[in-house]
Amino acid sequence: MANCSIRLIRGELRPRVLFRPKFCVAIQMSRRNEEIDGLRGWLSLSVCLYHGFLIPQGDGIFPIFFAPITQTTSIHRKMILQIINGDLAVTVFFIMSGAVLFVSLSELSNKRGMFGLPLDFMIRRLFRIFPALIVALCVFAGSYWLLQSAFPSVFHVYFTSGQLLSNLSLLRVSMYGVSWSLRVELEAVPFILLGFWLWRRAGDAGLAVYLALALLARDAPWLTLNLAPLNDHLFLFVLGMLAVGPVGEAATRKLRDRGLLAIPLITILGASLVDYRAEMVRPFQGLLAALFVAALLHGRAARIGDMLRSRSSQFLGRISYAFYVINPIFLEFNRTVIVKVFGLPPANFGSELLLGVSATACAVPLSALCYRRVELPGIRAGKLVFPLLRKIARRDANATVEYGERTQRP
Predict the structure, then answer these.
(1) SS3 category, 8
(2) Which of 62, 248, 364, 391 could be cross-linked to 243 through a Cys-Cys bond (beta carbons 3.0 to 4.6 Å apart)?
């Protein structure tokens, strides 16, 4: 194996190094990157606030959101929706997933090898995604069935048990809107493994080719086996994988706090000047978001990094996934209370802001509980499954060998 030096970043020794025959990259992440965790927490809040404006009006908000700022009917709503843009937040989530999963794969490949890696990785992803989702959907469905029984004139169940089961399995997203991104995360698993294999074979050049193919998949969905909307988002995972290594380091070498602050401003303003449905909006946002994530990964943030490493940011980062799947419960419940109990108009700026803020306040405690009691045990269980399966397989293989030896004895 080739030797490779470990980099010293901000006075902290980062020990994770990948060894490959031709390429050697120092992964510039410790066990957890606190800046990425903090960013994930604030983005999950923006998704909840964004849905506070989206849910009351439904499709009625899209003409404001999609239109260029020079043609919109409500400039202040347009700018608020761009600032708390939940669609952009999910874009960044996918990029961060690509980066974090790339590092996870590099660590697992040193333990499992390339043959055991796919199975172990898939098992861990299943145990990472499903436990909190199942709990959130069961709480959501159970609460609504009980509330409809107690207050039939106020609460109405709008989904069937079949829709609940299909959404629980992520086979079809028919009732719990936020789970569409979890389905994309799940469908992306084999493609992330393929990207990692290409990187092992050809380095960042292999990933660059893969990025080009992922961009082509937006117009040629057969490249992603006709999995929609994965075909429109796969390139974001690949951008995250590229952000970890030398490409991300070189692209952010001269970036500091002022430059980092300019990235979200350019992203928001640039997308607000054109029709948001334009073909180049998502790649434009994806490239800038990947640059921002790469800057955090490579320690380019000083004051921004301090803010993201604060206790409040880290708390939000820890519970971000649980919060992401739980906050729709309170968005739906609080919307009904605000409109039908308090009589406030649904399509009103004050009502929308109240909905987003109140749903956030209600969801945080339950999300923290879900993180401790559901999410963490699920992650630990996912790490134990593959070693257990391998142990059982080895025991069965040894038993088979011993039985064969006994039967061959005279």
Answers:
(1) strand
(2) 248
Asked whether the beta carbons of 237 and 195 are under 8 A apart, the reply is yes
If DSSP codes are grouped into helix, strand and coil, which group holds residue 32?
coil
In a domain, 4, yes or no: no
- Which residue shows structure tokens 């990692």? 196
- pLDDT tens digits, one per residue of 125-147: 999 999 999 999 999 999 999 99
C-beta atoms surrounding 28 within 10 Å: 21
DSSP state of 223: G
Q: Which tokens in the block code for residue 19?
A: 């060894």
For residue 148, what are the domain limits? 31-390
Residue with tokens 């606030």: 49
| Amino acid found at 204 | D
| Cα(316)–Cα(36) distance, integer angstroms | 11
Of 329, 363, 356, 358, residue with least CA distance to 57: 356
> Alpha-carbon distance 356 to 328, whole Å?
10
Q: Which amino acid is located at 111 in the chain?
A: K
Distance of CA 182 to the CA centre of its chain: 7
404 lies in some domain: no
Please give the pLDDT value at position 14.
Answer: 39
Give the pLDDT of residue 4: 37
CA distance 126 to 395: 25
In-domain check, residue 403: no
The answer to whether 29 and 16 have CB atoms below 8 angstroms apart is yes
**Residue type for position 271:** A
- Whether 255 contacts 205, CB under 8 Å: no
Distance CA 26, CA 14 (A): 8
The total domain count for the chain is: 1
Predicted TM-score (pTM) of this structure: 0.90
